[in-house]
User: Which sequence fits this backbone?
């Protein structure tokens, strides 16, 4: 059985067929195309009398009732696994870095002392929250804005999964709101607020590293497909 190699024009027809099944993301389409093209080539080599349209239909049926969704699911699973691995590698790198360790200790101590000072001077906002808590919450909000500006949202799986891997601000923001009781247990509140700020700082650094990795992955993908 002779090996059939699809032309660029035929590959474009395969892409249109994939798009017609509801798949638009270029990364997903490219992943599906790799598998789909092999199946179509096999169908054409198996029976040289059929045309491309029939070969595509036969190839699509060979993926089963879920069709291309199986390929998409496997692609997403592999991407999530990759970014989770990068996440914990980045976390380990940040926690063992002397500069980041010193910054974290300095941040913790600064917020701790400021929280005690605000409590001693009765500095509470309209919602009866210690000013230190306000600073940390604004810091979290600023971190969210920073990542959105620096890493503008892209409609592709690399960025989507990278962001989903490191939603650092959700548990931290929830924790500081539910744990904010600055009038009683002042020292415990200061420790809590300082710890939240420090954890938030570390997780923000890790998220930036994951998003940098997603940017590199996407750039390499574009370069590879431009060749």
Assistant:
């Amino acid at each position: 059985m002779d090996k059939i190699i699809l032309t660029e024009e035929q590959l474009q027809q395969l892409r249109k067929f994939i798009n017609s099944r509801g798949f638009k993301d270029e990364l997903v389409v490219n992943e599906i195309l790799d598998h789909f093209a092999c199946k179509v080539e096999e169908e054409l080599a198996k029976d040289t009398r059929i045309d491309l349209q029939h070969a595509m239909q036969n190839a699509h049926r060979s993926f089963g009732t879920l069709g291309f969704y199986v390929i998409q699911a496997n692609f997403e699973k592999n991407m999530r696994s990759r970014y989770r691995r990068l996440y914990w590698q980045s976390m380990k790198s940040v926690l063992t870095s002397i500069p980041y360790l010193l910054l974290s200790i300095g941040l913790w101590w600064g917020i701790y002392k400021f929280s005690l000072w605000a409590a001693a001077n009765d500095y509470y906002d309209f919602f009866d929250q210690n000013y230190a808590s306000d600073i940390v919450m604004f810091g979290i909000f600023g971190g969210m804005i920073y990542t959105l500006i620096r890493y503008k949202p892209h409609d592709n799986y690399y960025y989507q999964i990278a962001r989903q891997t490191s939603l650092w601000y959700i548990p931290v923001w929830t924790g500081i709101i539910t744990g904010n009781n600055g009038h009683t247990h002042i020292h415990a509140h200061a420790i809590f607020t300082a710890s939240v700020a420090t954890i938030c700082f570390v997780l923000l650094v890790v998220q930036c590293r994951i998003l940098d990795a997603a940017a590199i992955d996407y750039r390499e993908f574009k370069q590879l497909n431009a060749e």
Q: What stands out?
A: The chain is about 75% helix and 0% strand. The radius of gyration is 26 Å. Residues 186-226 form the longest helix (41 residues). Residues 8-67 form one domain.
